[in-house]
Amino acid sequence: MNKAIVMITGMLLAASAASAFDKTFNLTREQFENLQISEAGVALNNFSLAENDSFMAKGTSKVQVSFSVRNRNQDVRALTVMIVGMSDNELLWAVDAAPMMAMVAGNKTEECNGSAYVPPGTVNQTTAFWIRVVGDF
User: Fold this and answer.
1) Confidence of residue 56 (pLDDT cuts 50, 70, 90)
2) Is 97:66 a contact under the CB 8 Å cutoff?
3) Beta-sheet pairing, 77-86 with 103-104
């Protein structure tokens, strides 16, 4: 009996891992701002990048990334987006952005935001992006 449970559990885990969306993108600034990802009824778009003065941490700025995610499915979908900003030869900042509770309800659109404290002027130095999108769609 235990062998059957282990085998069934393994098959279920393998099937769920096989259906997960997991893609990585290496983009220029222009490609980032025009990025549209669409898969299995889930669409991400309207990516934007900004730098604002920090309210809490004096002498720093705040890099802010935002985008929209639309779930055209009936069921809830989970996702997270990891974004790294780079110059020609170094990593400048990293954020994780996801909808509230990392889930988008069926037939809904949500705005996702991520931010990090950085030295002033960091966004102007950002020339490339590494993005990883992981979700259950």
Assistant:
1) confident
2) yes
3) antiparallel
Q: Are 45 and 67 in contact (CB under 8 A)?
A: yes
| Global pTM value | 0.84
Convert the pLDDT of each residue in 82-136 to its tens digit.
Answer: 999 999 889 999 999 999 999 999 999 999 999 999 999 999 999 999 999 999 9
Residue with tokens 């990891």: 82
Secondary structure (DSSP) of the chain: -HHHHHHHHHHHHHHHHHT-EEEEEEEEHHHHHT--EEETTEEEEEEEEEEEE-SSSTT-EEEEEEEEEEE-SSS-EEEEEEEEEE-SSSEEEEEEEBSGGGEE-TTEEEEEEEEEEE-TTHHHH--EEEEEEEE--
Residue type, 95: V
